[in-house]
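Predict structure. Chain length: 233.
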Amino acid sequence: MLTILKLRKKDKNEKRKRNVRFSCLPNKWIFRRKNAGFKVMKICISTFKGGPGKSSIAVNLAMTLPGDYGVITNDIYSPLETVLPVSRFLKIGRDKKFPRLPDNANIIYDLGGYIDQRTTGIIENSDVVIVPSLPEFLDLQITIDSIAEIQRFNRNIIVIITKTKGNEFSMACKVIRAFYDYLLLELKYSRAFPSIFEEKMSIQAMCAKGGLKGHHYKLVNKQFNELISEIQG
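Prediction complete.
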C-alpha cells in the first residue's frame, strides 16, 4: 500500500504567473491537438541530480494520463525517443529556447540540472512540480536544496522518494520533514521502470497485459496511480 504523507494542502492561489518567451512550435507536434474533455495541465519534473528516475516518471505519465501528453526535456541524454514518437517529445539543446505552446497543450517538462533563465518561467507556470529523489542521504540533501530553489517560483510541489527498499521511505521522510511540509510519495524499487523502455509500454499497460510482469508490477503501478490522482486533484 502506498504510504502518503499529506503534510501540506496544495494552494494553487500561491502560484504566480509570468510570461515566458518561447520559440515557435513545430507543426508536426501532437501538442497542437485540442484536448476536449480532458483537464489541460503543465507538469514539471525537476531535479538537480541524476539517478532518481526523472525521465522514467515523465514517460510513464505521458503514456498513462489521458489527453495526448507530450514531453519536453533539456536532458539531451534522455532516452525519450526509444519510447515516444517524434510527435510527442522534444529535446532542447543547451542555450536553446523552449517552444511556444498553445494554451490547450498537455505538457510534461523533464528538467535536469540547476534552474536557469530558461526554466524559471516553466516552473512558475506549471500546475504542479514533481521533485524525485533517491533515499540516500546525499541525494536527500541535494533534494532539500532543490526544493529551496524551486519553491521560489512554485509552491505546488510533490516530493517522490524513488527506488526505495525496506523502511527507506520513512527514514527519507524524516529528513525532508525537518525542512518542508510538502506532500511526499513513495515509488519502490522495481524493474517496471526500465521495462517501460524495453517494452515500450506504460506500467499500467504492462499490468493490464498480465503475466509475470503484470503480477510483479502491481505495487508500483498502484503507487504511480496514486501520484496521478494527486496530480489530477
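Summary: Strands lie at 42-47, 70-73, 89-91, 107-112, 128-133, 157-164, 183-188.
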